[in-house]
Amino acid sequence: MEALFNSIAYFIPVGEAEKEIISTFFTEKQLKKGEPFLEEGKVCRHVGFIVKGLMRYYLTQDGEEKTFYFAKENEFVSNYESFVPQVPSLKSIEALEDTTVYVISYDNLNRLYSTMANGERMGRLIIERVFVEALQNLNSFYSDTPEQRYEKLLLAHPDLQQRIPQYYIASCVGVKPQSLSRIRKRLSLH
Amino acid sequence: MEALFNSIAYFIPVGEAEKEIISTFFTEKQLKKGEPFLEEGKVCRHVGFIVKGLMRYYLTQDGEEKTFYFAKENEFVSNYESFVPQVPSLKSIEALEDTTVYVISYDNLNRLYSTMANGERMGRLIIERVFVEALQNLNSFYSDTPEQRYEKLLLAHPDLQQRIPQYYIASCVGVKPQSLSRIRKRLSLH
DNA sequence: CGCCGAGTTGAACTGAATCAAGAAACGTGG
DNA sequence: CCACGTTTCTTGATTCAGTTCAACTCGGCG
Q1: Which residues of chain B have pLDDT under 70?
Q2: Which of A103, A133, A178, B19 is the residue whose CA sits 20 to 30 A from A20?
Q3: CA of B97 to C1' of D2 (A)
Q4: Which residues in chain A have their CB less than 8 angstroms from residue B84's CB?
Q5: pLDDT score of B90
């Protein structure tokens, strides 16, 4: 739970009182490889903090899964589009490896906001940060070619190639596995 | 200033005390058509609330401007990527029409958060809302073809065609003006 | 050994980009 | 109110990158 304290301490002071509150509201959860964190059509009821492991966000379209984001250690995981307004999710999230997360429910998060000194402030600062990071990620999708996106993705997650099959990466880059294969070929010929 | 009060009242109760504080921290600003709200390379120092008019967000790449968002009446305007961490912006924002905004500086916004009862809470709720809307907007860029994006953009902003030249719309849809022209042709033939 | 999922490779196809030339709309000044 | 020039929009021909469909390779595993 130290990793979570540290992440929160980045935003507000975390003393014993805060640790106490955080510990009671977050609970540990284990996800096996392939298990869902959030399923399409269901309301996203939790925010998680990934201690260990890897997850992917994806949506299903015409029977085809499109992966658009990977989250790993020390990141918060949630579909805010579903979580914030508590409406059914259009997206799914699943573990790509055996994963350990600390989760907090929607209701408990709101309790935490109002119970903890600086709770609201913490909430604002965290969502601001998550927002900014999300925007930066998405920038690449506007301006870059698949080739550039592939290079940036590897730069941001150098371990990804070792951890997951290539077709997840292809999907996240926005091309078919065949095309990624050709892109890799082009790049390897300098 | 009523429009601003109303927008905030959507998130927290706005009594006389709040109106007082909000009025002192926000100041009215007029932008002529073509004037910048934010220039690339500068730090975004303000959040604005658009009372009247229309703005576009864009970035410059290889000497070419790419418009990626339009903001209009009753919307907040800011580049949060630059505003939140107070770092130089990669994006620009300019008025497409004569526009009236109420603006608040970074420092004053933080004062407002800490001064006003429920200030932090308001901040959290507003950024949550903005975040969710931004995500929903961006969804279309992942999953849809330019054709679908064009149709959705017109649906979301039915007045846009009348208010601005088509090449802004093309850019936001993610294609060149020539291609949008062809898309329009295809669509008009049902 | 044969199966199976993952990755690579080939050929034909598609939609947007590009280059380029007109046509239409707009505004400004005579 | 019209004429002219600029800006915006359309259209055509060509090119290019990713898609699709399909075959084939490779490595692990029963």
Answers
A1: 189-190
A2: A133
A3: 29
A4: 128-129, 131-132
A5: 94
Q: What does the domain layout of chain B look like in residue ranges? A: 2-117
Return the sign of the alpha-carbon dihedral for residues B119, B125, B129, B132.
positive
Whole-number percent of chain A with pLDDT over 70: 99
Helix segments in chain A, DSSP class H? 2-9, 16-25, 80-83, 106-115, 119-143, 146-156, 160-163, 166-173, 177-188
Mutate to test the interface with B, among A76, A115, A128 (most CBs of B within 10 A): A128
Those residues with Cβ within 8 angstroms of residue B88's Cβ, 6 or more apart along the chain or in another chain: B41, B42, B43, B82
A103, A93, A104: which is closest to A39 by C-alpha? A93
* Cβ separation A143–B61 shorter than 8 A: yes
DSSP label at residue B120? H
Task: Return the percentage of chain A with pLDDT > 90, whole number.
Answer: 88
Helix axes A106-115, A119-143, angle to 10 degrees: 130
Fold of A2-117: Jelly Rolls (2.60.120)
Q: Please give the pLDDT value at position A181.
A: 95
A137 confidence band (pLDDT: 50, 70, 90): confident
Average pLDDT over residues A108-134: 95
pLDDT at B139: 83
The radius of gyration computed from the CA coordinates of chain B, to the nearest angstrom, equals 18
Which of A120, A132, A141 faces B84 most closely, judged by CB atoms? A132
A175 strand D contact, CB < 7 Å: yes
Residue with tokens 């002071």: A13
State the DSSP code for B88: B
